[in-house]
Amino acid sequence: MKAKAAVVNAGGADFDIETIVLDEPKIGEVLIRVVASGICHTDVVARDQGWTCPLPAVLGHEGSGVVEKVGEGVVGLAAGDHVIMTPSHCGQCDQCRSGRPFVCERFFELNYYGKMDDGTSRHHNEAGEDLTNFFGQASFGTYTIANSRYVTKVDKDVDLELLAPLGCGVETGSGAVLNRLRPEGGSSIAIFGAGSVGLSALMAAAAVGCGTIIAVDVLESRLELAKELGATHVINPKEVESVPDEIKRILPKGLNYAVETAGAPGVLRTAVDSLGIRGVVCQIAAPPLGQQETLDVNDIMLSNKTITGVVQGDSVPAVFIPRLVELLKQGRLPLEKMVTYYDLDDINQAVEDGLSGKTTKAILRMK
């Protein structure tokens, strides 16, 4: 069948809106009519070839949609189901079998290299050339093929367009707090970087009753939004001499927890220096390749601090996404306050607005 999609044909180039051709779903796969897709910074990095991703490609990995057709052997999904697509995983390695698909041993192969489990493609341009289906879902298009293994069914009474970012950015930020840190009620936490991932972490911290929630960012507009979403304090690094000193002015004993979502040089060190005794920092952001970070190892040792990496919020999507949907339904995860909608045809403007900070979370509508 034919569909419309945003295609990247050359590294760093704009997205081209093209007609593409999709194969039929094979064993274990489903055909999905994409309703919406969030734009994640990882999509921009892939577009610009900061990470290896064969071109031409259909990017996008925060897709929501409706199942149109199921392939042989699919269980638990049927035509008409509302679904969220999440990153691909193999389901067979030690990590997947241990309930940790977020650290699948084939993660890079299945998500960045653009082939399905059997090593073939389902997406092609009109000339018959294979297109990379990014993260196994290629959600920057009106239709896609995905393996049912990483497709999660959701309630039909929730706005499917708004749910799109749950598949990556929201799952990652909120999961870092809810699944990895698990802060106690009344504890303190700082979120370094108030983009969509950081704000998702902040909303999760507010939802579980953290007492002091500090947002750190250089954009005043995002700090204002952070306050609206539950931050008790905000800090702009451009306006203070030392972020750790400013945090310890608020919390003399330092932070219990921190989440680093900025990925900029020096931010991890700042987060670690802001921790109190036995404090824990989650490192989420992917820093530039080759970036070096200098840490005070004696301080980490003597204060019993912990630095832990987190991928996809340590989440099992089939379990965690329904929890997030329930929080949204209760008004405890107000995603609508940080999103801006764009038509698929306006994807290049959406990317530009996200990079400039004008938009916090862009969601593409496929209508």
Please, what is the CATH homologous superfamily of the largest domain? Answer: Medium-chain alcohol dehydrogenases, catalytic domain
CATH hierarchy, class of the largest domain: Alpha Beta
SSE string, helix = H, strand = E? EEEHEEEHHEEEEHHEHEHEHEHEHEHEHE
Helical stretch count? 12
Report the count of strand segments.
Answer: 18
Portion in beta strands: 25-35%
Helix/strand structural class:
alpha/beta
Helix content: 25-40%
Overall domain count: 2
N- to C-terminal separation? 17 Å
What is the correct CATH architecture of the largest domain?
Alpha-Beta Complex
What's the rounded overall pLDDT mean? Answer: 95
The biggest beta sheet is recorded as: 7 strands, mixed
Describe this entry's structure for a reader.
With 367 residues, this protein is of the alpha/beta class. The chain has 2 domains: 2-167 and 334-365, Medium-chain alcohol dehydrogenases, catalytic domain (Quinone Oxidoreductase, Chain A, domain 1), CATH 3.90.180; 173-312, Rossmann fold (3-Layer(aba) Sandwich), CATH 3.40.50. Helix content is 27%, strand content 25%. The chain has 12 helices and 18 strands. The protein has helices at 41-47, 94-97, 107-112, 160-163, 169-181, 196-207, 220-228, 243-250, 267-273, 297-302, 317-329, 347-356; strands spanning 2-8, 16-22, 29-38, 57-58, 63-70, 82-85, 123-125, 132-133, 143-147, 151-153, 188-192, 212-216, 233-235, 255-260, 275-283, 306-309, 339-343, 361-365. Strands 3, 5, 6, 9, 10, 17 and 18 form a 7-stranded mixed β-sheet that branches. Strands 13-12-11-14-15-16 form a 6-stranded parallel β-sheet, sandwiched between helices. Helix 10 links the parallel strand 15 (275-283) and strand 16 (306-309). Helix 5 packs across helix 6. It starts with a strand and ends with a strand. The mean pLDDT is 95.
